[in-house]
Write a structure and sequence with these properties.
Two copies of one chain form a homodimer. By secondary structure, chain A is of the alpha/beta class. Chain A has one domain: UDP-N-acetylmuramoyl-L-alanine:D-glutamate ligase, CATH 3.40.1190. Helices cover 33% and strands 28% of the residues of chain A. Chain A is built from nine helices and 14 strands. Chain A has a nine-stranded mixed β-sheet with strand order 6-5-1-9-10-11-12-13-14, sandwiched between helices. Chain A has a four-stranded mixed β-sheet with strand order 4-2-7-8. The longest helix of chain A has 15 residues. Chain A is globular and about 55 Å long. Chain A starts with a strand and ends with a helix.
């Protein structure tokens, strides 16, 4: 049961289902409400725990009721929250997520600018017994610290390179593995064709990198060229959190000593199972489900 | 310190401040977030407690984190929440409130249809030592029970007659005092001129009734005709919860044995102080502030 140290963003989403998205200053009635945790690093940590790994999360929250909700839910998944720091006088990140009948989402997020950027309090991955680090881009100082510490002890350091990627590129260079979101890669490179953009950015990076393109699968830059990993053909019900599950599963597979090709298959299978189920991280498969899915495709 | 028994709706509002209201399925950034309690009966109860009365609230909440937030905030105001019932398997009422820079509000509310309507568990006002009852229209069965029980022991029973008023009119007839919101009165009567609508509806009601029309003041039906109580001329900063504060103060004044004219002045002064301050119920004045306001106008 290897440990993955996850560093980044944890948020509480207040999700309201409505027939049609609101568009003006009026009163609307929701048919359904759910309060669920989100945030790339936090959801990846929950996925790792579901998949049988040990996940330690470091994140900044406020000293408010939302922090209690965030930590209680992650703890229920089995995530170690000892390094989720309550920052006094700050607000936890929260979002109103309003979803219409077709799955279209209006998101209003609040991120407290007073949350301290300082990351010097982060434990080292070796102190945690971690076999890999996973960081998102929402707390760049934390990501830089953790990815640097992973590199110093020759552990895999995975960057979930989603919007917004700090333009100086320091986070990308700190990681041993960079997994771009397609939109974030376009923003960063100014090139809207994922394969071309990846080839362009890969030249400046010391490690392995890929871009995830939803159902189209994954393009990785390997041996000086682009390799395509096809996606699984499944019926998509809900994509919320699917990318985060992919990153968690990918980091866990590396922590287990798999090579990148095997880790991409493992992660894509986890995401393919997730998108077939309603709910965000709650739709993450168990390890047994994931292995059965891979075995049925001759990939176990 | 007389007791007012408040029966009705308690909700948690997740309030996001944005420069401009969202209008499509995209991601928006909030500049400010607050999680605050709302609901007509619950906010009236908080106002009563601020104004030196004892407030006992009966309301239905779920067995969720929002229920904890609702009760914790009301308890901090000094509201007796022993009769706030946690309904197992239900969700508490919650709203996303998105406010733009001009104060315009988009509200998405979720009210769980599974919350049990049954009100037979409500204590009697006499058992609580209550000197008045205040009910809103969001839990008609609860309001009908409490207003009927007040009438049976000859206590004032105030109905906050805001949208939606059940069309059979039973709630209006159960109350000794009905305070209509202007829009609700228009909806109920089909007459958009408040004085005419009030005169029309008053004929069918056994008790005293009035309509509150914001800064224009209050029209009451007294001695067979319409009496106008002018509003106070104050600078309006935030009207959120002002109506609820008005109803709480009005019920408290009746519980203290004041006549209707005095109670209207007391309530209008409480609301006039509230609208000068940002925040919902947090802007409710203390008793000392209210008495100083009235004394300065020769009304103490």
């Amino acid at each position: 049961m290897p440990t993955v140290f996850c560093v980044g963003h944890a948020v509480q989403d207040f999700v309201f289902s409505v027939p049609v998205l609101p568009d003006r200053g009026e009163k609307y009635r929701a048919t359904r409400f759910e309060s669920v945790g989100g945030g790339p690093a936090a959801t990846a940590a929950a996925a790792i725990a579901r998949l049988g790994g040990r996940a330690v999360l470091a994140a900044r929250v406020g000293d408010d009721a939302a922090a209690e909700m965030i930590v209680a839910e992650l703890a229920a998944y089995g995530v170690d929250c000892a390094h989720v720091r309550r920052c006094s006088g700050c607000a936890s990140s929260v979002s109103a997520v309003i979803v219409d009948a077709r799955g279209e989402r209006m998101i209003v997020n609040h991120l407290d600018p007073a949350l301290p950027a300082d990351a010097t309090w982060l434990p080292g991955p070796a102190d945690l017994g971690a076999a890999a680090v996973l960081a998102d881009t929402r707390w760049p100082e934390g990501a830089l610290d953790a990815l640097g510490a992973a590199r110093a002890v020759a552990l895999p350091g995975v960057l979930d390179a989603d919007r917004p990627i700090p333009p100086d590129g320091a986070l990308l260079r700190a990681a041993s593995h960079v997994a771009f979101g397609a939109d974030a890669l376009t923003d960063f490179t100014g090139i809207d064709q994922p394969q071309r953009a990846l080839a362009e950015v890969a030249r400046g990076l010391p490690g392995w990198c890929c871009v995830t393109v939803g159902g189209e699968g994954v393009y990785a830059f390997e041996d000086g060229g682009i390799r395509h990993y096809a996606g699984f053909d499944v019926e998509v019900v809900d994509t919320l959190g699917a990318g985060d599950v992919w990153h968690g599963a990918f980091a866990l597979a590396l922590a287990e000593g798999r090579d990148e090709a095997t880790a991409v298959g493992f992660a894509s299978a986890a995401a393919a199972l997730k998108v077939q189920r309603r709910g965000g991280r709650a739709g993450c498969p168990s390890r047994a489900e994931l292995e059965a899915f891979l075995a049925a495709r001759g990939m176990a």
